[in-house]
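PROTEIN DESIGN WORKSHEET
SECTION A - STRUCTURE
LENGTH: 291
TOKENS:
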């Protein structure tokens, strides 16, 4: 039995190695196709609407492929427990259980120096096989509230009296249940998704919702309700309140990264990037690199 287990493990590793074919830039151009990993069911960035791919990241990936003169193939990526898992499964090693192709490019990866330099217990870079580059969006936390039940949000302290909805196991969830020694936890209501938190606000179960700005903008765009407003409060003790989002390729594929960066800069400079965001009702903040 032990021998069979060893043989089976070896077979899985061989299968993973066979699948983990990193295509270089010349191969991608010759094939006429760019394989891009986007997160599954993650509106407004990447989702399907009646079977049609939609979202900011989908449209951006399409624009990048067109700039390179190739067609786009989307790889829908269910999010793993950690970003490290997603980079491993879609960029540099693959997963013997999912049997999916490796992507040439992955969208919505943090553009963060500290994260890229993160090391394991042996002192090795945890994501040394990956190049994270091309910041294309600044993201931040945002509160939206219903003016029919809440006049304003001067600070998060207002949520001692007013219920607020958050996605379960999210940063806003951990933040609101711990800040001010947990004084807001009783009024923090948890939902499986941001969309369901907004549905609860519409139903009067909560007076506000906290989530990523892009998700909040999208829900407000969908609701088209003038009584729903954006708060401008700060978030004391939250830590990083704004961060940049970029892309990732295999560390051997820097030529692809250079080509994508060139196309990306053109999209940002000529306003097409802002137009993509506006299409989904999102505000666009230009990354620091391009200001």
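SECTION B - SEQUENCE
RESIDUE ASSIGNMENT:
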């Amino acid at each position: 039995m032990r021998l069979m287990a060893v043989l089976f493990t070896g077979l899985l590793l061989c299968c993973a190695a066979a699948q983990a074919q990193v295509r270089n830039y010349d191969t991608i151009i010759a094939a006429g196709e760019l394989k891009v990993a986007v997160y599954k069911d993650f509106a407004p960035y990447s989702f399907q609407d009646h079977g049609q791919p939609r979202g900011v990241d989908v449209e951006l990936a399409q624009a990048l492929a067109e700039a390179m003169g190739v067609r786009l193939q989307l790889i829908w990526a269910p999010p793993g427990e950690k970003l490290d898992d997603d980079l491993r499964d879609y960029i540099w090693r693959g997963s013997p259980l999912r049997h999916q192709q490796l992507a040439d490019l992955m969208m919505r990866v943090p553009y963060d120096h500290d994260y890229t330099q993160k090391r394991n217990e042996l002192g090795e870079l945890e994501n040394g096989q990956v190049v994270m580059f091309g910041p294309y969006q600044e993201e931040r936390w945002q509160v939206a509230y219903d003016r029919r039940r809440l006049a304003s949000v001067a600070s998060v302290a207002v949520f001692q009296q007013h219920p607020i909805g958050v996605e379960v196991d999210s940063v806003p969830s951990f933040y609101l249940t711990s800040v001010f020694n947990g004084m807001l936890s009783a009024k923090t209501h948890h939902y499986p998704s941001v969309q369901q938190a907004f549905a609860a606000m519409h139903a009067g179960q909560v007076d506000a919702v906290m989530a990523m700005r892009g998700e909040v903008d999208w829900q407000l765009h969908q609701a088209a309700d003038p009584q729903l407003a954006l708060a401008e409060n700060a978030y004391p003790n939250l830590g990083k309140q704004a961060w940049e989002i970029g892309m990732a390729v295999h560390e051997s594929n820097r030529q692809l990264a250079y080509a994508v960066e060139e196309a990306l800069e053109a999209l940002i400079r000529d306003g097409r990037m802002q137009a993509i965001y506006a299409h989904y009702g999102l505000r666009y903040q230009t990354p620091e690199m391009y200001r």
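SECTION C - NOTES
The chain has two domains: 18-138+243-290, 140-230.
Residues 2-19 form the longest helix (18 residues).
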